[in-house]
Design a protein that fits this description.
Elements: H1 5-32, E1 41-43, E2 48-50, E3 57-61, E4 68-75, E5 78-86, H2 97-111, E6 115-124, E7 127-140, E8 143-156, E9 159-169, H3 172-181, H4 183-190, E10 194-195
Antiparallel strand pairs: 1-2, 2-10, 3-4, 4-5, 5-9, 6-7, 7-8, 8-9
């Protein structure tokens, strides 16, 4: 056997492994953008799962704001998503529910430009959370529309989990109306957030 034969075999093996890995990766990409057959999305990296509404468009991704994001969209006026992010400073740092809600409301007003902010203690699978509802104006195309937001905040160690449902309308009343029309599906999905 010549000294050059072994490197050629090794290179062929390496190319075969690369090709096999590429094939597996190609098959895995669509799966990451669709809910599993059971309908429940499971994120192993951050140990949470989420059940998007049936037949809504689902995507799982990472963004500039979210270390992990699982999103379900009915249409351009109605969506819900889970976002995992580093814990925000000065948010839910107290033992008192009233003070924590005040921190949540301040965060929403200052960072998210929310208006008419309401907050109350809540639970997500026995874990303490804080649920806020508010309005804000957002850009769409060349104009602006009203956004009605229903949002839960939950702290786990150094991470902040938020599950956000929002609807859009030409007025605050219109945005709330879209929310009320879809409240069954949004509430079911919001309450489906589970931690292992």
């Amino acid at each position: 056997m010549s000294p050059r034969a072994e490197p050629r075999r090794s290179g062929g093996r390496a190319r075969a492994l690369v090709a096999a890995f590429a094939a597996v990766l190609a098959l895995s990409i669509p799966a990451a953008c669709e809910p599993p057959a059971t309908g429940r999305y499971v994120n192993d990296e951050f140990d949470f799962s989420f059940m998007p509404p049936k037949d809504w468009k689902f995507t799982a991704s990472k963004t500039a704001d979210c270390l992990a994001r699982a999103e379900a969209i009915k249409d351009e006026n109605c969506k819900i998503y889970v976002c995992v992010a580093p814990r925000a400073e000065n948010l839910i740092t107290m033992r008192d529910d009233f003070l924590n809600c005040e921190q949540v409301k301040t965060f929403i007003r200052e960072q998210l430009k929310g208006q008419s902010v309401e907050c109350e203690p809540a639970h997500t699978w026995r874990l303490r959370a804080y649920q806020a509802k508010y309005l804000r104006m957002v850009r769409r195309g060349e104009g602006v529309v009203w956004q009605f937001v229903d949002q839960k905040y939950l702290i786990r160690g150094a991470l902040m989990f938020t599950i956000t449902a929002y609807t859009l309308g030409e007025s605050p009343e219109a945005a709330r109306e879209v929310y009320e029309q879809n409240i069954y599906f949004l509430s079911q999905a919001m309450n489906s957030l589970y931690f292992r």
